[in-house]
Every structure is written in structure tokens, then in C-alpha cells.
């Protein structure tokens, strides 16, 4: 499976009956999945199905899904109020005869307010259902385009992440091979620390000296941190190669990497090791920032 980015945009248009519409999808980064769907009437009856399809296609991110429908000019229907027409006609003829005027014409009577009621024809249930089905088909088309766009960006993102992991692994190997970690160097620093301890103590306490030596030796050993860093780097690389919805797991691994790098920096008792620890922390922070874009 391919790695997908959480950011993307897609649009699909369609028509059916007296309707035309456009479905737009826009996704941005988020920790979970948040679908913000807008479907005006009468298409709102398909909102549940649309939400289900979006949730099936997306695993993470905020999705803004908007249907913009437009109705074509529909044939108007007219209804004549015959009772009102007859009453007005009788009154108009009587008034015309009394005034010696010509009787009213039919077109004049029909132009009077309240005689004719004109309204746009409404879609029947079958027409609305067909339009909703067409809108859902456009949604599927937009989802396909969005998925392709997110995967295309995901491929580039995966390449960047692999490069960052390689840089992290290189720094870990450099720390592992640092001359300051050689037994002779550790013994020399330990001997220097013991000498300082003895010089600052008026009374020689062999038990305390033994305890301090053990603590200093334990602090100088960063073997476990280096091993865990290597393990986490390998796990992150495997996740990226497998692909899929790996964003949350990569984020967890980036936190573990940061924790081990911080411990290594704290335990380092040599300037060069401290510098490598700080470099690791900076590299891991950059890696974690990029991971926030992964679905």
C-alpha cells in the first residue's frame, strides 16, 4: 500500500433532470478524522450515504465536502381561480355597462392579481432520488481524484521521511563509533572523576567511592539508548515501506525516538557525544514535523 498525505483537493461535476451540481473535497491535517459535509436540500436526504462513503475512503484528516447544486429553468405551471374570474367578470361587465364602456376582455381579466397563480414545477420523488444518486456518483469521482492526489503527495513525503531516517541512523552510528565511548576513554574519565572526588573529601570513604564509581560508569553507558534508537529507526522505515494509514504509528515512533535522544544527551559526559545528541534531537524533531502530514 502507498503512503498518503492528509492534504488534497478534488472537484467533480454532474447533472440530472433539472439539476446541475459540483462536489468539492478539501482535506487538511488533523489528528483524527473529521468530516464536515454540506449538502443543501433536496440533496440532504443523501447526506448519510455521502458521509459513509467519505469515512470509508479516508482514515485521518479534516475533510471539507461541499455540494453546490444549481437548478435549471423549470417549466412553470399555471392555475386559474375560476371562481374569482367569474366574480370579477360579472362586476366588470356591470360597471362597464353602467359607464357606457366596452365590456372587459379576457386577457385584461387574466392580468388581474389573484386570478392566475403561477409556480415552478416541483420535482417528484423519483426525480429527486435520481438527482441524489447522480450527486453520489460525482462524490465517488471526487473521492477517486482526491485519493490519487493524496497518494501522489504521499510518495514525495515518504521519500523525504526515508531520507530523514537515513540521516538519523547516520548520526546514531556516529555516536556509537565515537572515540569517547571506547573503554579506555571511559576509564580515563572515570579515573579523573574519582580523583576529583578523593581530592574534595577530607575523609576517605571506600563505600561511597565505590558507589560513585558505579554511578559514573552507568551514566557513561549509552548502549541501551543507541540500540533502541536503531530499533525505532528500523521500525519507522518498515512502516513507510509497507504504506497505508501509518500516520499515528509513525507519530508514536517519533516520540520514542525523541525520548531516547533526550536520554542520550543527558547521559553524555563528553562534548562530542553531547553535540551528537543535540543533532539527533534536531533531526528527530524535523522528522516528527513531517510525520504530521501523513494519513
General description of the model:
It is rod-shaped and about 135 Å long. It has helices spanning 47-57, 82-99, 106-110, 125-176, 183-199, 206-220, 223-242, 247-267, 271-291; strands spanning 8-16, 19-28, 33-38, 61-71, 76-80, 116-120. The chain has 3 domains: 8-73 and 127-151, Ribosomal Protein S5, domain 2 (2-Layer Sandwich); 76-120, no CATH class; 152-291, Four Helix Bundle (Hemerythrin (Met), subunit A) (Up-down Bundle). The two termini are 12 Å apart. α1 packs parallel to α4 (125-176). It has 295 residues and is α+β, with helices and mostly antiparallel strands.
- Topology as H/E string? EEEHEEHHEHHHHHH
Note the total helix count.
9
The rounded Rg comes to 38 Å
Structural class: alpha+beta
Flag low-confidence runs: none
The neighbouring-strand order within the major sheet is 1-2-4-3
| Distance between the amino and carboxyl termini | 12 Å
Largest sheet: 4 strands, mixed
CATH class assignment of the largest domain: Mainly Alpha
> From the coordinates shown, what is the CATH architecture of the largest domain?
Up-down Bundle
CATH topology of the largest domain: Four Helix Bundle (Hemerythrin (Met), subunit A)
Beta fraction: 15-25%
SS elements, strand count: 6
Shape: rod-shaped
Mean pLDDT: 87
> In which range does the helix fraction lie?
55-70%
Total of domains: 3
Brief sketch in words of this structure:
The protein is built from 9 helices and 6 strands. It has 295 residues and is α+β, with helices and mostly antiparallel strands.
Amino acid at each position: 500500500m502507498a503512503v498518503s498525505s492528509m492534504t488534497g483537493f478534488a472537484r467533480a461535476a454532474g447533472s440530472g433532470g433539472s439539476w446541475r451540481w459540483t462536489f468539492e473535497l478539501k482535506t487538511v491535517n488533523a489528528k483524527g478524522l473529521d468530516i464536515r459535509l454540506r449538502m443543501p436540500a433536496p440533496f440532504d436526504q443523501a447526506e448519510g450515504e455521502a458521509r459513509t462513503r467519505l469515512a470509508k475512503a479516508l482514515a485521518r484528516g479534516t475533510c471539507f465536502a461541499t455540494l453546490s447544486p444549481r437548478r435549471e429553468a423549470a417549466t412553470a405551471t399555471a392555475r386559474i381561480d375560476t371562481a374569482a374570474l367569474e366574480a370579477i367578470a360579472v362586476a366588470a361587465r356591470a360597471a362597464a355597462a353602467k359607464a357606457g364602456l366596452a365590456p372587459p376582455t379576457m386577457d385584461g381579466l387574466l392580468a388581474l392579481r389573484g386570478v392566475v397563480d403561477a409556480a415552478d414545477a416541483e420535482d417528484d420523488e423519483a426525480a429527486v432520488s435520481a438527482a441524489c444518486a447522480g450527486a453520489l456518483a460525482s462524490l465517488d469521482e471526487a473521492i477517486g481524484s482526491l485519493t490519487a492526489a493524496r497518494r501522489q503527495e504521499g510518495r514525495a513525503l515518504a521519500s523525504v521521511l526515508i531520507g530523514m531516517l537515513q540521516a538519523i541512523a547516520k548520526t546514531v552510528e556516529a555516536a556509537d563509533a565515537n572515540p569517547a565511548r571506547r573503554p579506555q576513554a571511559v576509564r580515563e574519565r572515570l579515573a579523573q572523576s574519582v580523583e576529583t572526588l578523593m581530592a574534595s573529601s577530607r575523609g576517605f570513604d571506600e563505600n561511597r567511592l565505590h558507589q560513585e564509581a558505579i554511578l559514573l560508569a552507568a551514566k557513561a553507558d549509552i548502549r541501551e539508548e543507541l540500540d533502541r534508537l536503531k530499533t525505532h529507526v528500523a521500525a519507522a522505515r518498515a512502516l513507510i515501506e509497507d504504506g497505508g494509514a501509518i500516520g499515528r504509528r509513525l507519530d508514536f515512533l517519533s516520540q520514542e525516538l525523541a525520548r531516547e535522544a533526550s536520554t542520550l544527551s543527558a547521559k553524555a559526559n563528553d562534548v562530542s557525544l553531547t553535540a551528537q545528541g543535540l543533532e539527533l534531537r534536531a533531526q528527530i524533531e524535523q522528522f516528527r514535523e513531517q510525520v504530521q502530514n501523513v494519513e
